Each structure stands twice: as C-alpha cells, then as structure tokens.
Amino acid sequence: MFKELVKYYLEYFQQYGEPAIKTICNCVVPNKIILEEYKKLPPIEQMPEKEKSEMKKYVIEMFPEKTPEQKVEACKIVYTIGTLYD
Asked: DSSP letter at 38?
C-alpha cells in the first residue's frame, strides 16, 4: 500500500507540476510519505553542489514563510520527487 501511495503522489506531481510540490509539502500525510521514501535514497548531501544550490534557491522562493527546518524538509521532498520521477 505504501508504494501505491508514493506512486499516486508521483502521478499527482506529473499531472499538476509545481503546485503539486506545494500541496505535498504543506499537507501532513503526503509530506510524511515522501519523507519516508527519502530515507531509502542516497543522502541529499551527495548531490552536486550546483544542483543543491539551485534546489535551495527554488525552495526558498517557493516557501518564503516556512521555517529553516521546514525548508530542509521541502528540499528533501523536492529531491525525492525528482529522484523517483526520473
């Protein structure tokens, strides 16, 4: 069932694009599901510096109201979606 939910959220992202990222980051259930999937991936720290920098900028612009901790979670969600989507 867990894999089906991850697949659902990836399809949701495919259909709605950037607004889906905001929804996933702002809703508790999809947020937690994607963050659980993040734990199975190589650490975000292994990303090339340029990609990390671009992702950080993207998240800061998308979520200016979030706390630093929430922005880190959003980066993990963006990273996970990008990794699983490829």
From this structure: H
Q: How far is CA 10 from CA 4, 39, 44, 66, 70, in A?
A: 10, 17, 19, 23, 21
Question: What span, in angstroms and rounded, lies between the C-alpha atoms of 42 and 80?
Answer: 10
What pLDDT digit, counting tens, does each position of 35-71 carry? 999 999 999 999 999 999 999 999 999 999 999 999 9
Q: 15-24, pLDDT tens digit by residue?
A: 999 899 999 9
Amino acid symbol at 23: T
- CB pairs under 8 A, 24+ apart, for 33-37? 33/2, 33/5, 33/6, 33/9, 34/6, 34/9, 34/76, 34/77, 34/80, 34/81, 35/73, 35/76, 35/77, 35/80, 36/2, 37/6, 37/80, 37/84
pTM score, whole prediction? 0.89
